[in-house]
Amino acid sequence: MIRMPAVAGRFYEANPELLRKEIEAYLDPTAPKEPAIGAVCPHAGYMFSGHVAGAVYSRLIIPDTVVILGPNHTGLGHPAAIMAKGAWQMPFGTVPIEEKLAAFILQESQVLSHDVEAHLYEHSLEVQVPFLQYLNPDVAIVPICLSHLPYEALEDIGLAVAKGIAAYGGPVLIVASTDMSHYVPLEVAKQKDALAIEKIIELDAVGLIEVVTREKISMCGVFPTATSLIAARALGAKGAELVKYATSGEISGDFYQVVGYAGLIIR
After folding, report:
1. Does the predicted TM-score (pTM) go above 0.90?
2. Tens digits of per-residue pLDDT, 206-218?
């Protein structure tokens, strides 16, 4: 199964030469780089959130294997969908699924299913791939697409990811793909997103879901982010660092209906 790009030419440049220039504009080659257990990155069009994603990716050593967890915006497919086989065709070339790691994760989970349909048109995972591919042309991915799930299911998946990575043995980066508040005034976004970011920094998956629910924060990737925090903790992570926060208002000039973007490193 070869998955074709769903949002090339819309969320990011489809032409590889133009895409290379676009990504380079968002990366800081002088930034100190480090290996990390995980990262949280936004997934809007690059013109809006590419500078936040770029700030995070500028700081990371990208290993050959990356697990990407993102929300299901389309409603298609299984609510806990891992694409365990095949490859993704992208502007920079084909990115293989790391089938060995995917099989380990699938084996450890009672919730995940191998499902391609959920991934076909989903942009949240796809927009991470050009950055990963630019920084490591040999990268292979394990894409996991999650809908609204109970906490027990998120815990199952998070621990399965951690156990799968431990069994796999090589260096693996976990990327949680999420935007923060959607279409609220700037001050509301900044205030509410800060509450969610605080829980991410503390690696508090339960607290993150609780604060997002209580404060009605329209964080689209809260479930994949919480799942990533569970996995990261199980792999020995101690905390996270906020690298950059921004909103769409800085690009669009509309500060009455902004979308928030947060970039963090988990180590």
Report:
1. yes
2. 999 999 999 999 9
